[in-house]
């Protein structure tokens, strides 16, 4: 009698499980699942946060419910991103009403490496969004990686990053890459460019040192301005990206120093705006400087798209050389041509298509996995 | 280049001047990326008519070369004012006979006048050179520094604040709107040394927009013996120079070229 009762209970539980799976499967197929994007409190570098909102927008346009998950309730929605990209429900992690189920997907950016462990018991699919290997590594203890927290899928922005992951983590992740796209409001202007140099870098002390070295070497160019690309308010703030693009196009050159960058969006924004980027090569060479053959093997480096150097102390001299060329109207047109050739591959339209493809694949893989649960032999018997 | 006339004022003539003049004219002929060269107007005194006519013949086949005889005062300001009255183009530019344009000068002028059609005076960045063609300094470039134009000033544009603290601006090689130059009264021949400074102050006072093209467009020989500014440098003591700067600051609010009481030189001016 008790055996029969136990069997009934097991059958009931199995039935419930199957029903839950079926509902989850239907939700995914009917686009009723939630796709949750975690956003960091710190909005630097701003482009990294922009990309999260862009992913969210693409997924929303695919028909899914999108939630932006914030660390704190008082999270400030970034004003510098276009309004149509920030129109989401923002819910703090502490919200007790928030629940996730097996058909939901949570996208966790690299900067949240430290809290990834806390999400490991969640039933949803968790996907790492990797834009910076440094942010990923920062809070991991040696011998631990995202796989330890049950994260198998990673979306990243460059083949270089994918190669590094595969080499160091022995191909253990399912890595999907796409090209970051540069919005069309980054464009060339008919307005003659000014003798002003935009300057962007992760380390303010390094930027300050560079500017001082430049003025020391070239006192005759004391009237050339460096533009930190912030608002003119007090205190200066991050500019809206559309205003940033407008300001950038008016300057003739731009310095970029970011050793730990894993992609390098700013030089691409410069190229699209007809502004010559003067860059310190980061530890990971930007993907767009590399030409690959049909087997994906790098065979050429496009160092002529702007000016790229390995040596920080070359940069003030390079700036001086470029200024004299600008003043003499003598910047080679080939340099602009090379920049055009590269940046044409990084349109936002293509980027959105690639992002959509990635999420479609992730969802299809999830559907397959759930479907396979119906057909798996029951080992418990 | 149909919207520009080049004015070259000459008040004396000799072999040395001819050599300089050849170089100046060559700098016009060597222009890159322009469909046609602008009209050239050489304004000169009656006394050198024969020599200038002979000189003109060298370039007749290559340039639209016009001569204008000045029977009146032959100081720099009067020569330019006289020539401007005969200009029929929207802009004019004064090329001093010992100076040169950069080889993309006209291309730049076209680009900037097409884009900024509300600007009245386009100053070039001038590279000042010595006799050996070595660069000594830039001129007109300071408006591109925010600290010079002030917190409320716009970089690239000259304003009165900048002019009050920094007086070293030159109009040689500038593209100036002909109608505006005439409207505000042209150069004042009664003002020595600081007549360009006074003109700039007056132009700003009359709402003119003055902008420096951020390109090295004009080469000025700064050390030529007997040049006008070399003469001032050698023959004017600091008191007198100061007098002319103070005069410019007083006179710019008047449109007319008023008589200047020079008896006050060395009397009322205190050297700081």
- CATH C-level name of chain B: Alpha Beta
Structural class of chain A: alpha/beta
Average pLDDT of chain A? 91
The CATH topology of the largest domain in chain A is Rossmann fold
C-alpha-based Rg of chain A, rounded:
24 Å
What is the second-level CATH architecture of chain B?
Answer: Alpha-Beta Complex
The average pLDDT of chain B is 91
Helix content of chain A: 25-40%
Strand content of chain A: 15-25%
**Strand and helix order of chain B:** EHEHEHEEHEEHHEHHEHH
The helix fraction of chain B, in percent, is 25-40%
Pick out the low-confidence regions of chain B: 267-272
Gist?
The complex is a heterodimer of chains A (381) and B (272). Chain A contains ten helices and 14 strands. Chain A is an alpha/beta fold.
Features:
heterodimer; A: 381 residues; alpha/beta; Rossmann fold; 2 domains; seven-stranded parallel sheet; five-stranded parallel sheet; elongated; B: 272 residues; Spore Coat Polysaccharide Biosynthesis Protein SpsA, Chain A; nine-stranded mixed sheet; 10 helices; disordered C terminus
Secondary structure topology:
The complex is a heterodimer of chains A (381) and B (272).
Chain A: H1 2-29, E1 34-39, H2 46-61, E2 65-70, E3 89-92, E4 105-109, E5 125-130, H3 133-138, E6 153-156, H4 159-168, E7 174-177, E8 194-201, H5 204-217, E9 225-227, H6 241-250, E10 251-257, H7 265-273, E11 276-280, E12 290-292, E13 298-301, E14 307-309, H8 315-327, H9 333-343, H10 348-375
Parallel strand pairs in A: 1-2, 1-4, 2-3, 4-5, 5-6, 6-7, 8-9, 8-10, 10-11, 11-14
Antiparallel strand pairs in A: 12-13
Helix pairs in contact in A: 1-10, 2-10, 5-8, 7-9
Chain B: E1 4-10, H1 15-29, E2 39-45, H2 49-57, E3 65-70, H3 76-85, E4 91-94, E5 100-101, H4 105-115, E6 121-129, E7 135-139, H5 146-149, H6 160-165, E8 175-177, H7 178-183, H8 195-205, E9 210-221, H9 228-235, H10 238-251
Parallel strand pairs in B: 1-2, 1-4, 2-3, 6-9
Antiparallel strand pairs in B: 4-8, 5-9, 6-7, 6-8
Helix pairs in contact in B: 8-10
